[in-house]
Fold this protein.
Amino acid sequence: MENDEKFIWSLLLHLGYRMWGDDDSLKPMADSLAFDYDTWKEATERMAEIGMNMAVIDVGEGIVLPSHPELAIKGSWEPEQMRDEVARLKKMGIEAIPKLNFATCHDAWLGEVQHKVSTPEYYKTCADVIKDVAEIFGRPRLFHIGMDEESDMGIQSRKDYIVKRQGSLYWHDVKFLEGEVNKHGARAWMFADESWFNRESFYANCPKSILLSNWYYGRSFRVAEAKWHPPRIAAYADLDAAGFEQVPCATNWYPDFLYAKKGIRANDVNFPLTVAHCRSAIKPERLKGFMMTTWKRTVKDCREFILHAIDLVGQSMLI
């Protein structure tokens, strides 16, 4: 069976981590890659063991890109290293899918260009890096472009430098990015956050050709109990009714600001609850799989957290 016929069981793994660089403009970002290959290798082997079939790799600054080597840092992989890794994963039954986050609050990996959004230089850089990454990954069938939290001013208000696109400019840029991804044989994949904050604009403008990941990280899907924005729960069914194909996103990460006061330091229930909810809320023909996220660096200190996330997926595959 070809990869594009398989139901997706995926994990978002971080190679790069320069996605949140404007929290303190006076604090420099790390000058070397926060990454441990042994942790990565163990995680991917565990994925293969339980039957997971996709690694969504957050590239960021993690590869020395031929068109923009200035975006790399100490420890960034050479292109051939990633090609070899894509091949290794394929032999294990794991499809490697690249992710470059172009949301304006998660694009610190773009260096100075993150502050030149929607300019000719920005568009050229985006086209260049998409081309490079698509070639390095061997023309993947999917390409994740991020786009989460740009309209969430609760997130943006904590930044030192705020950039937000809206209206026709936002959708121009989304469609530009999709077009660049399509040029290299891939389908664009992005988070569905915009549907919560600008519902009318989203449903009027978002192309059905984009694969969507709605996400909700709470510990209950009962709206009356949910502490997070209720439209996040409703969006699974709303997107389905509008005809979008989805890969819902869930996590074992805990929103500290919600749970710390209660002494809750883990979130083992979100992924299985998401699977159960979406199995009923989304028509089978439009439910393409699930994605687990940890939002942790791939380093030794996070090893147990990452492996536990994989085990939770394994348990949820039986739902």
About this structure: The first strand starts at residue 8 and ends at 14. The chain has eleven helices and eight strands.
